[in-house]
Amino acid sequence: LTVVPDKNMIHTIFVAGATGDIVFEKHYKAPVPRSVLDAFFEALTKAGDPEEVPPCIPSSRHYLISIFREKLFFIAVVQSEVPPLFVISLLHRIVDTFVDYFGQASEKKLQQETVIVYQVLEEMLDNGFPLTTELNLLKEMVRPPTWMEILDPISGTKRVKETLPTGQLTNIQWRRQGVKYANNEIFIDVIEHLDAVVDRNGTTIAAEIEGKMMVKCRLSGTPDLVMNFANPRLLDDVSFHPCIRLQKWSSESLLSFVPPDGVFELCSYVVGAQHQIALPVYVKPTIIFSEALGSKLDIEVGLKQSMGKQIEELALVIPMPKCVNSVSLTPSVGSWAFDQITKTVRWDLRKALVDRPVTLRGSISTAAGEPMPDAPPTISVNFRIPHFASSGLKVSRLDLVSERYKPFKGVKYTTIAGKFQVRA
Question: Which residues contact 293 (CB under 8 A, 6 or more apart)?
């Protein structure tokens, strides 16, 4: 047993809004003053965009490790060096727990459920060390709010159990005992986020897929599952849930596991440049800023590969420089809008892109005497493709080997644009 020094643990968790207001704070040791966040808010001011704040910021006596989700910053304060990815993963797990408990982790919701928030944080970390992070165990220890309690918040019932969850008394800690369902079913969602950087000629500079497999399990008893993939070699950079038997995966490329009850993340993976990643759409932008010749915009969008799938929620976001006063555009399909405050053009195509290129053309009006930008903007592309995995990953079989009933099984694939950027 290796004893980790006391100072290496998390001292405090702050939750702050993007404007700098503190939503709540949880101290696991001596209280840390809020002034420790001065270095963080200074970095936020320099970054401008909340998502561009560095995840690890050193201050005079502490390190501030943060994530930005649900329009909130979740900040862990540590006194000495710890693995940053460990803390970041823990913060994401905390936010995921709040989302599962409350449906969302917004500022308003966390303030409404302050008592449960503190009870969950007290159980998830012990003296700053991660203790109980498995959702099924947490729900047995701290009961989630019910609809009756939401409608009638005045209740005299105890929310925290006085006995240990049944799962902690077995070697399968992530699953509670005595689970029974009238209808046994398991659903798997393969969700992939496609990140890419493309130049104006359509050449892919960088591309990466971040995927995860979300499982909704409603199986009775203690089910033992075996999952086969048609192409397991794609999963060469993968992180598994503790229920996965690693030896089975290493030797036979099979996922063998006893799943937790309810919704959980079975695994997450990254498909990088070592694999061929085909981009679903192409964007050909021409954006010229010139005071003498006039500024203009011409963008063409089309399908890059024939997938046989419908692209949904397709939209382009084009940031404009501060010198732009107005724009006058004509789309061949969809609608567009220009935000005068943020100086951005948004072109919504929705489901219009099928088998032919579409265009957005027009002129840009700039302020007289204002300097023109040195380089054209970078366009962000948003889309969603249901029933399609851009990596090509496919679940071929899912077998139940320990129970006699036959469950209903389903697998769904979805590709979503992550940071998909096109340089104009």
Answer: none
Report how far residue 53's alpha carbon sits from residue 66's, in angstroms, rounded to the nearest whole number. Answer: 9
Coil, helix or strand at residue 41: helix
Burial of 88 (0-12, 13-18, 19+ CB in 10 A): middle
Residue 90 contacts residue 67 (beta carbons within 8 Å): no
Are 363 and 295 spatial neighbours (Cβ–Cβ below 8 Å)? yes
Residue 157 backbone dihedrals phi, psi, to 5 degrees: -80, 150
DSSP-assigned letter for residue 200? T
Least Cα distance to 66 among 45, 48, 31, 41 occurs for 41
Tens of pLDDT, residue by residue, the chain (424 residues): 344 444 568 999 999 988 888 999 999 988 999 999 999 999 998 887 888 899 999 988 899 999 999 899 999 999 888 899 999 999 999 999 999 899 899 999 999 999 999 999 999 999 899 988 888 888 888 888 875 555 445 555 555 555 555 555 456 778 878 889 999 999 999 999 999 999 988 889 999 999 999 999 999 999 999 999 999 999 889 999 989 999 999 999 999 999 998 888 999 999 987 888 888 889 999 998 887 778 899 999 988 765 667 888 899 999 998 888 899 999 988 899 999 888 999 999 876 555 678 899 999 998 887 788 888 899 999 999 999 999 999 999 999 998 899 999 999 999 999 999 999 8
Provide the token pair at 214: 């979300």
The SS3 of residue 230 is: coil
> What is the CB neighbour count within 10 angstroms for residue 223?
21
What residues does 402 pair with on adjacent strands? none
Model pTM? 0.81
Comparing CA positions, the residue from 104, 132, 415 lying closest to residue 279 is 415
CB 376 within 8 A of CB 424: yes
Secondary structure of 148-193 in the HEC alphabet? Answer: HHHHCCCCCCCCECCCCCHHHHCCCCCCCCCCCCCCCEEEEEEEEE
Contact 334, 301 (CB under 8 A): no
User: How far apart are the C-alpha atoms of 423 and 317, rounded to whole Å?
Assistant: 12
DSSP for 107-158, written as a single string: HHHHHHTHHHHHHHHHHHEETTEE----HHHHHHHBPPPPHHHHH-------
